[in-house]
Amino acid sequence: MRVLVTGGAGYIGSHTLLQILQERHEALVFDNFSNSSPEALRRVRRLTNVDFQVTNGDVRDEDALLRAMRSFRPEAIVHFAGLKSVGESNSQPLEYYSQNVVGTIKLLRAMEQTGCGTIVFSSSATVYGEARYLPYDESHPSQPTNPYGRTKHFIEKVISDWVASRPEFTAVVLRYFNPVGAHPSGLIGEHPSGTPNNLVPYITQVAAGRLARLRIYGNDYPTRDGTGERDYIHVEDLARAHVAALDYASRFSGCEAINVGTGRGATVLEMIREIEAASGRKVPYEIVARREGDIATSIADVRKAERLLGWKAQYGIAEMCRSAWHWQSRNPNGYDSSHGPENHGALLEEVS
Ligand code: NAD
Ligand code: WQD
């Protein structure tokens, strides 16, 4: 199958691209590198030894999308491109609506114009908001509590209306829980810009001595040890869910939203212990006030993924933390250790 991967140079995109190529699909990456490095693509090429095309473009640039799609003629799109920081979405809501919602509308329009009717979309468990019950199943009410989550909620609605407009359109909307970890090679992984907001990259940077200590946002939640509990999912399992979704979409028509998690939760203290075990280092921490907008527990009901996609997570938190540490220790500055952002131009020429 020919697959266009928007945002394919990013954290989840690069891991998924690798598996798409390993499944012998052809791929075109469409990315503006606003939050990624072409070095990730160079490493995917090194790991797979398979060639793929790369277009440097913004999904809101309909002409660039049309040009890329007319020449590549994708049979399916995996759509990762977008902004993903909850905090930033509070201070720059219009940027989030523009990149995420407008970007997706432009993409769907280009798909209509070029006869491509299949999309796998990166949604998020954040669409659910405060839990009315747990685990979250896909029918749980969607009441996101921040602009980022609302962009995902609105995009889901746009996609479902788009699919309903024509029988040949198909969408699989994957609602990721908390993606962590890295490829076992330690060659690709998560490269947060600046100080990480998310727990695992923060802890690995503390273990590496780059940050002094973790601040645990509250230990008075109604959980096993009082700290927040999340359904962490290994990025390798998540990537495999996309390959399963592409396969499912080739056999089905309609629009389905599907949770991607493990169905099990881990607390902040449990994640600290796993990174300590993986790294052999102590992770200093202090307890501070709860972070605004945080919830106590988030856990996925994963039965639908198993039923429709035949997919189930294989890795537990020990493997997630081991691979996260392996990536961090091999690449202390992420992709910038070998090639700083000033080299993006040359690298881009090399991978394009
Ligand atoms: P990422 O920032 O690493 O990857 C996003 C990629 O899209 C980057 O390569 C970036 O350069 C590119 N991009 C951004 N805006 C673009 C635009 N307008 N045009 C073209 N390319 C653009 O993020 P990620 O963690 O890999 O997330 C991928 C997707 O999954 C996002 O849509 C995100 O909202 C969603 N998601 C992520 C998480 C998570 O915790 N990482 C959880 C749930 C959902
Ligand atoms: C996990 C736990 C924190 C950092 C976010 C987005 C969500 C999705 C995934 C995109 C919580 C605690 C964290 C720290 C801490 N992204 N924590 N100290 O908030 O579950 O989800 O990423 O779709 O939309 O909201 O993930 O990794 O930030 O936090 O104590 O320095 O770790 O309170 O309990 P979260 P997280």
What can you tell me about this protein's structure?
This protein has helices at 11-22, 38-48, 62-72, 86-91, 93-114, 147-164, 199-207, 235-249, 268-279, 303-309, 317-330, 344-351; strands spanning 2-6, 26-31, 53-56, 76-79, 118-124, 170-176, 178-180, 214-217, 229-230, 232-234, 254-260, 266-267, 285-288, 297-298. It has 352 residues and is an alpha/beta fold. It has one domain: 3-Layer(aba) Sandwich (Rossmann fold). A seven-stranded parallel β-sheet has the order 3-2-1-4-5-6-11, sandwiched between helices. Strands 12-9-14 form a three-stranded mixed β-sheet. It has a two-stranded parallel ribbon with strand order 7-10. Helix 1 (11-22) links the parallel strand 1 and strand 2 (26-31). The chain is globular, with a radius of gyration of 19 Å. The model has no long low-confidence stretch (mean pLDDT 96). Residues 84, 86, 124, 126, 178, 197-199, 202, 214-217, 228, 230, 268, 291, 294, 298 line the site of UDP-4-deoxy-4-formamido-beta-L-arabinopyranose.
Second CATH tier, the architecture = 3-Layer(aba) Sandwich
The share of residues in extended strands comes to 15-25%
Rg on CA atoms, Å: 19 Å
Separate helix tally: 12
- The CATH topology: Rossmann fold
Bound molecules: nicotinamide-adenine-dinucleotide, UDP-4-deoxy-4-formamido-beta-L-arabinopyranose
Can you count the beta strands? Answer: 14
Provide the residue-averaged pLDDT.
Answer: 96
Form type: globular
Tally of distinct domains: 1
Tell me the name of the CATH homologous superfamily.
NAD(P)-binding Rossmann-like Domain
Question: Stretches where pLDDT falls below 50 for ≥5 residues?
Answer: none
* Class computed from helices, strands and strand pairing: alpha/beta
Name of the CATH class:
Alpha Beta
The strands making up the biggest β-sheet line up spatially as: 3-2-1-4-5-6-11
**Main beta-sheet strand count, sense and barrel state:** 7 strands, parallel
The percent of residues in helical segments reads: 40-55%
Order of helices and strands: EHEHEHEHHEHEEHEEEHEEHEEHHH
Q: What distance separates the N and C termini?
A: 20 Å
